[in-house]
Amino acid sequence: MVEILFQPVHQLTELLRRKELSSEELVRAALERIRARDGEIHAFNCVLEEEALATARQVDQLRARGEILPPFAGVPIALKDNLCMAGTRTTCSSRMLENFVSPYDATVVAKIKAAMLPILGKTNLDEFAMGSSTENSAFGPTRNPHDVTRIPGGSSGGSAAAVAAGMAPWALGSDTGGSIRQPAALCGVCGMKPTYGRVSRYGLVAFASSLDQIGPFTRDARDMAALLGIIAGHDPRDSTSINQPVPDYARELSGDVSGMKLGIPKEYFVEGNHPEVEAAVRAAIATMEQLGAEVREISLPHTSYATPAYYIICTAEASSNLARYDGVVYSHRTREPVADIVEMFRKSRTEGFGDEVKRRIMLGTYVLSAGFYDAYYLTASRVRTLLCRDFEAAFKEVDLVVCPTSPIPAFKLGEKTADPLEMYLCDVYTTSLNLAGLPGMSIPCGKTREGLPIGVQIIGGVLREGEILRLADAYLG
Ligand code: GLN
Questions:
Q1: Does 444 map to a domain?
Q2: Could you list the pLDDT tens digit for every one of the 477 residues in the chain?
Q3: Which of 92, 151, 176, 356 to mutate for ligand 1's pocket (most ligand atoms within 8 Å of CB)?
C-alpha cells in the first residue's frame, strides 16, 4: 500500500474510477503512513482522521451508486495550517492562534470540499509563514524526509514534507517570498506559486497581502494542472482576485515545447550557488533545449535588490496585518495580572509571538515610521517597479525564464537559526516573483551526491501558468 502513496494523483484517480481501490483504502493508507512517519518528520500540526474518512466513505458510496463525481473525488490532500477550515484549528504554527477555531472555510478549502478531496490534516509552517526552514514553528520543526537531520525548507515545509514522505498525494501551501517553491525544491516535489490574484486568498491568514498567494504541491505537472484548476478562479470575497476564466490547464500538457524561448538570467548564475545545484540546473536547461526549446541568456539587472526590497515590504505589511492579534477577540491573552489594557496587549503579544515574528513586526514598524518611510518603504516600492520592468522587458524576448529555485540544497537543522540574514539569503531567487506578481514553479531536477533534492524554477508572465506547466510536463516526461 505504501507504494500507492507515491503514485501521482492522475494514476490514483484511475484506480479509484476502475474501483480497484476505494477512497477509504487510500485515506487509511495515508493515515497509516502518517502514523508511521510523522512522529519523526512532524509535517502535520493536526490530523483530521474522522473527517477525512467520512469524506472518503461518502465518495465510495456515491461511486458505488454510479453517481457522477468530480474528477479527482476521493484523493486525499493536506492543507497548510494558515488556511481556515470551518470547525478546525488554524494555528499558523503560533502560540497566538494555538486555540483558534475557524468559523468559516477559506475559498480554496470550500473548493477542495466541493471537489470531494478528503482533508487529511493541517500542516506545519514557520510561524505566520515567516521563514525558510519551518524551524520558526511554535510547535517544533518539520524534518526533511530525504534526511531527517535537515530542514524541509519553508515556510510551507509541512506540506512539502507530507508529499515527499508519501503521507499525502498532494497538498496546498502559501507563497509570499518563496514558501511553496523553495520547500518543493528542497523536498524533491513540484510546487507552484500562481499569478498574484489567480487563486483567492479569502481565508488565508494574511502575512503580506500584496505578496501572498496560495498554490499546490504535487508529484508531477499533470497533478499540478489538476489542482491549480480546482483552486483557481475569481472570488468576489477577495478584491485582488483576477476576473478571468480558468483555462483547462491539462490541455496545455502537449509535451511539445519546440520553439519555446527560454531566458536564462545571468544574475541567477553567480557565486554563492552550490556547485551541484548549478550543475543540475544547467543540465536541466540542456535537456529542455534537447526537447526543442530555444535557450538564450538574458539579464534581470535589478535581481540583487529583490531580497532587500522584499524584506522591507513584507515586514511593513506584516506589522500592519499582525496588529490584530491583541488578545481581545480570538488570539492568545495573557493570564498574568495586568494594570490596564495596554499592558494586556503588550503581555499577550510578548507571550504569543515567537522571535522571528517579533523581529519582523519591529522591522516593519520601523520602515513605515515617520522619517524612515521614504528611505525604506518608498525606496523598496520603487525597486519593486524596477523588478517588474526587468521581467516585462525579458518577456518581450522570451516565453519563460529558467533558473535555480534555491541557491543551496537542504541545510542542517539549526545551521542558520542564529543568523536571520543568512536565512533571508536563501530567498534570492524566489522573492522577485512575488514582488512582480508572476507565476513560478519549482520542479525536481536531480539530487546532490548526498541525495538531497535540487529544484529548477520556471517563471512565466502574468497568467502564463499554462506555458510553465507545458515545459514542466515535457521536462518531467
Ligand atoms: N522565506 C521567506 C520569508 O521568510 C518567504 C516566506 C513565504 O513565502 N511565506 O519571508
A1: no
A2: 778 999 999 999 999 999 999 999 999 999 999 999 999 999 999 999 999 999 999 999 999 999 999 999 999 999 999 999 999 999 999 999 999 999 999 999 999 999 999 999 999 999 999 999 999 999 999 999 999 999 999 999 999 999 999 999 999 999 999 999 999 999 999 999 999 999 999 999 999 999 999 999 999 999 999 999 999 999 999 999 999 999 999 999 999 999 999 999 999 998 889 999 999 999 999 999 999 999 999 999 999 999 999 999 999 999 999 999 999 988 999 999 999 999 999 999 999 999 999 999 999 999 999 999 999 999 999 999 999 999 999 999 999 999 999 999 999 999 999 998 888 988 999 999 999 999 999 999 999 999 999 999 999 999 999 999 999 999 999
A3: 176
Domain membership of residue 240 as a residue range: 3-252
Which of 82, 132, 192 is the best mutation target for the ligand 1 pocket, counting ligand atoms within 8 Å of the beta carbon and taking the most? 132
CA-closest residue to ligand 1 atom 5: 177
Q: Which atom of ligand 1 is nearest to the CA of 129?
A: 9
Q: Which of 80, 137, 179, 363 to mutate to test the pocket of ligand 1 (most atoms within 8 A of CB)?
A: 179
Q: Which residue has the cell 539579464?
A: 299
CB 413 within 8 A of CB 143: yes
Residue 65 is assigned to a structural domain of this protein: yes
Give yes or no: 155 in active site.
yes
Q: Among this protein's residues, is 179 annotated catalytic? A: yes
What's the pTM value of the predicted model, to 2 decimals? 0.98
CA distance 244 to 463: 9
Counted domains in the chain:
1
- Please pick, among 22, 94, 137, 179, the residue that the annotation labels catalytic: 179
Name the one residue in this structure whose C-alpha cell is 487509511.
28
Please indicate whether residue 174 is annotated as part of the active site: no
What number does the ligand 1 atom closest to the CA of 427 have? 1
Ligand 1, residue 154: give the atom nearest the CA.
1
Is 175 near ligand 1, meaning CB less than 6 Å away? yes
Handedness of CA 33, 37, 43, 48 (dihedral sign): positive
CATH number at residue 159: 3.90.1300.10
**Residue 177 alpha carbon to ligand 1 centre in Å:** 5
Number of C-beta neighbours around residue 84 at 10 A: 23
What are the angstrom distances between the C-alpha of 211 and each of 78, 190, 330, 412? 22, 20, 25, 28
Q: How many CA atoms lie within 13 A of 76 on its CB side?
A: 37
**Residue 179, ligand 1, Cβ within 6 A:** yes
Q: Does the Cβ of 155 fall within 6 Å of ligand 1? A: yes
For residues 215-228, one letter each, b for 16 or more C-beta atoms within 10 angstroms of the residue's C-beta and e for the rest, the string is: bbbbbbbbbbbbbb
Ligand 1 proximity of 178 Cβ (cutoff 6 Å): yes
Residue 246, helix vs strand vs coil: coil
Q: Is residue 80 part of a domain?
A: yes
